Every structure is written in C-alpha cells, then in structure tokens.
Amino acid sequence: LVQLSTGEYHPAASKPCIAVCEGPFVPGECSLSVEIVGNRLGLLLNFPFTQIEPCESAFYLIDWRTGHPYFFREAEHGTYDAFAFLNADTVVLPNLHLHTLELCDVFSPPSPSSPAPLRTLRRLALPPLAVHAIPFRIWCRAEPTPTGGRAQRTAPEEARTRAPFRPAPSAAIVLFNIFILDTRQRLHTHSLVLHRAALLRPYRAQSLPSSPSPSSPSPEPEPRAEDDDEDAPERLREHPASDSSHTPLIPWSTWGPPACRLFPADALATRWITTTCGQRFVLNSPLRRAALHPEPAHLCDFN
C-alpha cells in the first residue's frame, strides 16, 4: 500500500504489505480487480487461463489500515469477472453463471482472524438471453467510487475544496459490458447503463433458494454511525425474505426496463477501463476501426 503523493508506504497502513492468498504463478494469467472505499479494500482474483486445474474466483474485502479481513467468497471458475461499490456498505458482483447482479452487504467490523462469508442481499436478473446464446463475460465499472465517511478519509479537506468539480458518487451511473457468444462462436457485446441509485431501490422479489455460495451468520454488526458524507447514497433496504436460506430474486421485467439503457456495442471500444464519469458515458470506436473509418466520439449524459 503506497501513498501516491510520496511514493512511500502509506503512513495510515499498519501493514503496508498484506498477504492475501497463494495461487499458481503463470505470467500473464492472473486477473486482478481492486477498489478502495474508505477503510475497505475490495480485491477480486481470477486465473482465467489455467485450464488444467481451474482456480476458483475469489473475492476478498480487507481493512487496508489494519490488514484485518472483513469478508471472503469463493465461487466456481469464471463466476465473477468484476465488481463495483454502490455505496460504502454495498458491492455489486455480476454473476456470469446465473446471469444476475448480486448485491452484497459489506458492512461489518473486520475480524482479526478469519473473514466472514460474504452475504448476498438480493439478485437482480439480467435481460434474458436468446436461445443457444452463451454468456462469456460480464465486466462493470462506476466512477467516481464512494469515499466513505469523513473519519475514513486520508486526504486533507482542503484538497477536496480545491477540486473545480466532483461528480457525486450517489448520482453516478454504472456500466456493465456483457459479452455473449452466438451459435457460431462469434462474440457480441452489449453495454448496460443505469444509475447506482436504481440498483439500491427496493423491488418486489421472488424468494428463491440461494446459490451454493458459502453462507453462515456474519459477526454481530456494530451500530451504524450516521452518515456524515454529503455524497452518501440511500442505503440498500433489505427484503424481509433475505435470510440465510433464501436470496430474493428480482425479475428483469420488474426492475430493468424502467431503469436501464442497453446499447449494442459490437462496434464500440470496450477495452478501456474508464469510459464513464459521474452521469456521463463516452462511446467511441476501436482504434483499428477508427483508422479506417474515422468517427467522432459520442457523449451520453444520463442526468
């Protein structure tokens, strides 16, 4: 953990080097996703090309200041490719195999020993696939990330006031790039855009048995402090059926059409990490296509 302004170990981290796990070492065959919100560091590890002995997808949530773990989840190889914080207490994990968005609670005091199993609050169904279509990958991104409460910030307050503008994380959009194989094994891409707040709304759910993810009671949570962050969004309301044996499933027809925009993205560049900021989304062509047929970039504003 390095402080960008100095290049030295971060002074707020009691363990600047945190041992997370051990995995197979094959150069270029580890996929890593990292997001930091307040004291929470989310880490998703995949080894997508280890076909002989496929490794499971592994998600870790760690207190980066102390090095203590919050939560952990393992799932079948390729289940999760990305994640995003919706607010300081909630992450969304697109589940490739179930074709759903899993909203998970990450509010809990860290444990000095072992992490608790990550608990799914509810699942949002993605648009139904055509017959014989095969989901290949689901990637997501939302900018900016939430900041956590004032007590968790390390940057001085004057640095925030100097910024000419700063989009509110609570009003930002989330981008999901969905990659699908057709019957001829051709890859197609669709970009799904919606606001963070749309994922946090309460919806009428179908209560179905949860997926075989590890689930056991989490440590007794500490009382939640009142939000002192002006950008803190509405907290996710837990559905009454959300218990250890059932995970509410929200059908696509219930939540999706009013909240989402779906773009065919075969002709768009989807490799760039950041193409959204706040409520704006930039659509541009891949470099090879742009060299042959120059096209202007398009800016969509979802305000």
Automatic annotation (TrEMBL):
Organism domain of life: Eukaryota
Region (Disordered): 205-250
Skewed-composition ranges (Pro residues): 211-220
Protein name as annotated: Uncharacterized protein
